[in-house]
Amino acid sequence: NSRSEQVQYCRFCKLKIYFNFLQKQGKIFISPIESCPYPKRHETHHPILTQEEIEYMLDSIREYDDKCIQGKVMMELLYSSALRPREVVALKAQDIDFKKQELFILKSKGNKDRVVPVGRRALDLITRYINTTRKKHLVSGSPDNLFFDFRTGKPYNGVQIQTVINYALRFNGFPEIRTYSLRGTAATVLYLNGMGIGHIRKLLGHSKLSSTTIYLRIHDNALKKELSAKHPRLKIKEGKK
């Protein structure tokens, strides 16, 4: 299955690195797996939620504790602005323009800066989070990052962001979700609501359009519905019936 294929691939990569290291150190003459091909890697896709599913989830999350609050704000940000997890990790309060409703993303993938819009709902949650929850845990030496671990006082990494989000979801009776699913869901929802793929590419920070299409996994029925509603030829045919 896909899970075992992924595990095998990761194990083989580690062995490759280990034997190459021994070879460079002169411990062995040649790697015993030098000529072995890499195992087939199963390309995984992050599950995409419908607009109804994600909005019901966001509206239903109760803020039982500070970690739940963090998880909810992170989810709103990821969904509102289709951010990468690393961009949420690096975001600082000074990177947010509350008046213009924009986020300044500094040196993300490819070392590129970009400005992305952010929704009023997310900004309202961020404002309340900064003035209450985050403020309560600020001490001398706290990082500038918008989100940090209140227990250790250190910034989160990408894996920890997912842990916090899934904590909030489990606490509220929802199944766990992958952070990139929120980014893909945001892109797909925007596409189905009429945003052009070129604008979505810019929002996601992609240099190639082909990268953007990976996120737009539209179900056949939804695609047919969109075509029926927007394709001029289909409209003409319907009119003649």
Task: Write a concise keyword list for the protein shown above.
single chain, 241 residues, mainly alpha, three-stranded antiparallel β-sheet, 56% helix, disordered C terminus
What is the topology?
Layout: H1 2-24, H2 51-60, H3 66-81, H4 85-90, E1 96-97, E2 102-105, E3 114-117, H5 120-137, H6 158-171, H7 179-192, H8 197-204, H9 209-215, H10 220-230, H11 232-240
Helix pairs in contact: 3-5, 3-6, 3-7, 8-9
How much helicity do the residues have?
55-70%
Count, helices: 11
Q: What's the pLDDT, averaged over the residues?
A: 82
Low-confidence stretches: 236-241
- Please provide the ordered H/E string of secondary-structure elements: HHHHEEEHHHHHHH
Shape from CA axes?
Answer: globular
Beta strand % = under 5%
Our measurement of the CA-to-CA distance between the termini, rounded to an integer number of angstroms, reads: 48 Å
Q: Which radius of gyration do the C-alpha atoms yield?
A: 22 Å
Largest sheet: 3 strands, antiparallel
Structural class by sheet pairing and helices: mainly alpha
User: How many strand segments?
Assistant: 3
Order of strands in the sheet with most strands: 1-2-3
